[in-house]
Design a protein that fits this description.
Number of strands of chain A: 9
Distance between the termini of chain B: 24 Å
Strand content of chain B: 5-15%
Low-confidence stretches of chain A: none
Strand content of chain A: 15-25%
Oligomer: heterodimer
Number of domains of chain B: 1
Number of domains of chain A: 1
Largest sheet of chain B: 2 strands, antiparallel
Number of strands of chain B: 2
Low-confidence stretches of chain B: none
Mean pLDDT of chain B: 91
Order of helices and strands of chain A: EHHEHEEEEHEEHHHE
Largest interface: A-B, 26 and 21 residues
CATH topology of chain A: Rossmann fold
Largest sheet of chain A: 6 strands, mixed
Radius of gyration of chain B: 12 Å
Shape of chain A: globular
Helix content of chain A: 25-40%
Structural class of chain B: mainly alpha
Chain lengths: ~210, ~70
């Protein structure tokens, strides 16, 4: 069983995704999966495409900028572009932690054979503490967003179906929101809630809800 | 369509944000509190999106208690 993950790190936003993905790599290794880590410069189109086609990973996670039709890698190179190469996602479960790709590219990927595609129909947003950009894992503003979004892969690695993974991530978003709504939550919590709620509602699943690795 | 009252409400909320908090939103964009306030005041596409996200949450809360 193989898990391919892209982890560009060329700006603060993707650096956060890069760092928060480390635990997913560790969990995958503990579960005995072979991890194809397209880290930094390896998050380029040629390498990612080649690895997907030759190694045939069952599970693929993209971290990076994106839009309706494109998922990007290092320095925003287009890794997967609708009507160009989404057919390489054939037979895979995809999770794209990227803006808006579930609106169009996700559907096109599933039409072209991807088993299931979990992503976001709108901008994936998160908050950053300016004083923590060098150590994202210590950033308490970013943590609720990236913990809840990490849950998709954690659940899939635990043998859950694509639908269960989506539901569990939704539950974690819900738990984070509830914790921040409590009267003893820190004062900044109220400013985190609208963005967290936005990510929760824009996360969606396309394709075979029973797909699992 | 955002009305002036809604815009004022969002501006008031953003004014209270901690100044060390910034937003990663859409593509490569990162916005400081000051930049968020400017976009909302201008009413440009980014400002409209910020208002939409804030109101979306506030309406969900209102629904919970209605």
């Amino acid at each position: 069983m193989k898990f391919l993950i892209t982890r560009p790190d060329h700006d603060d936003t993707v650096f956060y995704l890069h760092e928060f993905s480390k635990e997913l790599i560790e969990i995958a290794k503990e579960k005995g999966l072979k991890v194809l880590d397209c880290d930094r410069k390896k998050a380029n189109r040629k390498t990612v495409q080649q690895m997907i086609q030759e190694q045939k990973p069952e599970l693929v996670m993209f971290n990076g900028h994106g839009n309706l039709t494109t998922i990007c890698g290092q320095k925003n190179e287009a890794l997967i572009k609708q009507s160009e190469n989404e057919e390489i996602l054939n037979e895979k479960i995809i999770y794209a932690r990227s803006c808006s790709t579930a609106s169009s590219l996700g559907h096109s990927s599933v039409k072209n054979g991807a088993k299931a595609y979990i992503g976001y129909t709108e901008d994936f947003v998160f908050l950053i503490d300016n004083s923590r950009t060098a150590s994202p894992l210590k950033d308490e503003f970013a943590k609720p967003f990236l913990t809840a979004s990490n849950q998709i892969i954690k659940s899939l690695l635990n043998g859950r179906t694509a639908l269960e993974a989506h539901q569990r991530s939704q539950n974690v978003f819900g738990e984070q929101i509830e914790a921040l709504q409590k009267s003893d939550a820190p004062p900044e919590a109220q400013h985190m809630l609208p963005w967290l709620f936005w990510d929760k509602t824009s996360q969606t699943i396309i394709g075979d809800k029973n797909a699992q690795i | 369509m955002v009305n002036e009252e809604e815009k004022k409400l969002v501006l008031a909320r953003l004014e209270n944000m901690p100044s060390n908090m910034k937003l990663s939103m859409g593509g490569t964009m990162q916005l400081s509190k000051t930049e968020m306030l400017e976009h909302v005041k201008k009413g440009d596409e980014i400002g409209k999106k910020i208002v939409k996200i804030q109101l979306n949450y506030l309406r969900s809360i209102a629904k919970q208690y209605s």
